[in-house]
Design a protein that fits this description.
Layout (H helix, E strand, L loop, with lengths): L18 H32 L2 H28 L2 H25 L4 H30 L4 H38 L5 H6 L23 H12 L2 H16 L3 H4 L1 H8 L6 H24 L6 H17 L6 H29 L5 H14 L1 H15 L1 H31 L1 E3 L1 H10 L2 E5 L3 H7 L6 E2 L5 H5 L15 E5 L4 H13 L4 E4 L2 H7 L11
Length: about 525
């Protein structure tokens, strides 16, 4: 499966040229801002009332658990039903949550279990609407402008994070937390009304594909997984989204009052709002750069690199001792976050087959949104034990390690497409003919401990290019560049990358043993050891 080919030169902010999408963009920005206003006010009141990092972590868990449990099912509903109605149900639940917060603040009866229950309602609202939004936007703009629309949706989400603290802080200052969050209910209404007046259902561009109305069952779930596995890039983006969400997600925002407190905050919460705004401001800058300069086009490798850089940046944030570096790091983190999330979402949305698009988007949402419940533990609950500075730093390090592992996997997969991959039988045939040079590129300790393929020459990976390059000071002359060269390592990853490097150096007849030495030994093939020589 390949991504649909689109025009090479789309106009800047192409989706905004579609009239109905322009209206949707503005009104959805209102609704998303209301969502973030609720976060700002409710998190601030929770922190001031309970001073509990564990509660902040539990708030994140209870908020995102619905995404973890129901995203695929809600995606299936979006595949089968009118997406306008699903979004309207979502908006109704958001309004109910704000109303409940306001009444509890007014009566001063807020308890910890109230907060968890309301956040579950809020999470349910999000999971009901998320896949439906993706499908209805696709219906509005079509495939050609879809990438632009996904980026703009990302900018809208992050612009709402920028506006949310500003508007939420203003409402708290002018009306107080209780009346401020009650006024917030009204901000959800315009999008709900707009959806009553537009013709898009989310399925208008599916052509002959019919909407299946039967209930979503276990067999359908396995079919969705099979469709996702059909394209390696979808799987990689799901894994990347899951790792970034599980380890860090947005749980650090729930702990932002404590970071602001440690940096030295004010009673009105101005610096707290500034920290939240800085992260979102960076995201807006990132979207503007991607849309106007045509940089960071969606690719699996680009998304992984940006995610790794985001992990490094967000991991440095808790160690800032003044507001200047803290704000700068959050701006950079915001840019990197919107870069990798929008690239990942674009790849999943474009590569998913139309018949299962909602379900696969739901699966992606399970990873990138639902697994944020885990970040409530890795940052919030763990932060209550070792403090939130260390918990965020360690969680960010886990993101970096995961991203690097995925990057290596991408590099190996791409390399294998450009080189010859030999099975054990293939290598045995070539060795029997005697016209092949087999090079063991493992570490010397691996070779001595585990043995090696009989007749292979040991060329450590770090010296491979130097030993084979006649212009190098370390050129050994032991390998004939005109003869067939086959590399092997332990499992086939290092040898694939090394073979690709030799190909780029101009060695035309290079291959590698795909299963590596481990596969060779497990298959019962002969193994020679140093002592036997």
């Amino acid at each position: 499966m390949t991504a649909p080919a689109g025009p090479t030169h789309l106009p800047k902010f192409a989706a905004l040229r579609v009239r109905d999408y322009r209206r949707y963009f503005v009104l959805s920005l209102f609704a998303l801002t209301a969502d973030n206003i609720e976060h700002v006010i409710s998190y601030w009141v929770i922190f001031r009332k309970f001073h509990s990092p564990a509660l902040g972590g539990f708030a994140v868990i209870s908020h995102w658990v619905p995404f973890l449990l129901f995203s695929v099912y809600m995606g299936a509903l979006a595949d089968r039903h009118d997406c306008r109605r699903l979004i309207q149900i979502s908006q109704g639940l958001f309004m109910l949550a704000s109303l409940a917060w306001g009444l509890l603040f007014l009566t001063d009866t807020l308890r910890m279990w109230h907060a968890a229950a309301i956040l579950l309602v809020h999470g349910a609202a999000g999971v009901v609407g998320a896949p439906a939004i993706q499908l209805i936007v696709h219906d509005m703009v079509g495939t050609e402008q879809l990438q632009s629309a996904i980026r703009l949706n990302a900018s809208s989400r992050n612009l709402s994070v920028l506006l949310g603290p500003a508007v939420g802080g203003g409402l708290m200052l002018v009306l107080g937390p209780a009346w401020g969050i009650l006024a917030n209910v009204l901000i959800y209404l315009p999008l709900t009304i707009f959806l009553m007046r537009v013709p898009y259902t989310g399925h208008g561009r599916d052509g002959a594909e019919s909407r299946r109305r039967r209930r979503f069952g276990l067999a359908d779930a396995f079919q969705v997984l099979g469709q996702a596995r059909a394209d390696r890039r979808i799987v990689t983006m799901i894994l990347l989204g899951g790792a970034t969400s599980f380890f860090v997600g947005n749980a650090f925002q729930a702990q932002m009052p404590e970071y602001a407190h440690d940096l030295g905050t004010d009673d009105a919460g101005g610096w707290y709002s500034a920290l939240l705004a800085a992260n979102a401001a960076g995201a807006i800058i990132g979207v503007v750069l991607m849309e106007t300069l045509d940089v960071l086009r969606p690719s699996a490798r680009g998304a992984i690199v940006c995610a790794a850089a985001w992990g490094v940046t967000i991991g440095l944030f808790p160690w800032a001792r003044t507001y200047a570096p803290a704000l700068a790091l959050l701006v950079i983190a915001g840019m990197l976050n919107v870069a990798f999330t929008s690239m990942a979402q674009t790849l999943v949305q474009v590569l998913a087959p139309a018949r299962h698009r909602g379900s696969i988007v739901g699966l992606f949402n399970t990873a990138i949104l639902g697994l944020r419940a885990g970040s409530g533990v890795t940052i919030g609950v763990l932060g209550a034990i070792i403090n939130v500075h260390w918990s965020l730093a360690l969680s960010s390090a886990a993101v970096v390690v995961t991203a690097l592992a995925l990057l290596v996997g991408e590099m190996v997969t791409d390399a294998k497409k450009r080189i010859q991959n030999l099975s054990i039988a293939d290598l045995e045939k070539e060795m029997a003919r005697g016209d092949v040079q087999v090079l063991d590129i493992r570490d010397v300790r691996e070779r001595r401990k585990l043995g090696f393929v009989p007749g292979s020459l040991h060329v450590p990976r770090g010296m491979l290019e130097f030993w084979l390059d006649p212009t190098s000071h370390y050129y050994s002359g032991k390998v004939d560049p005109t003869k067939r060269i086959v590399l092997y390592c332990a499992g086939g990853q290092r040898s694939a990358l090394a073979a690709d490097v030799l190909r780029e150096m101009g060695f035309p007849n290079v291959a590698h043993l795909e299963v590596g030495f481990n596969g060779w030994a497990e298959a019962g093939r002969p193994v020679e050891r140093e002592s036997e020589k």
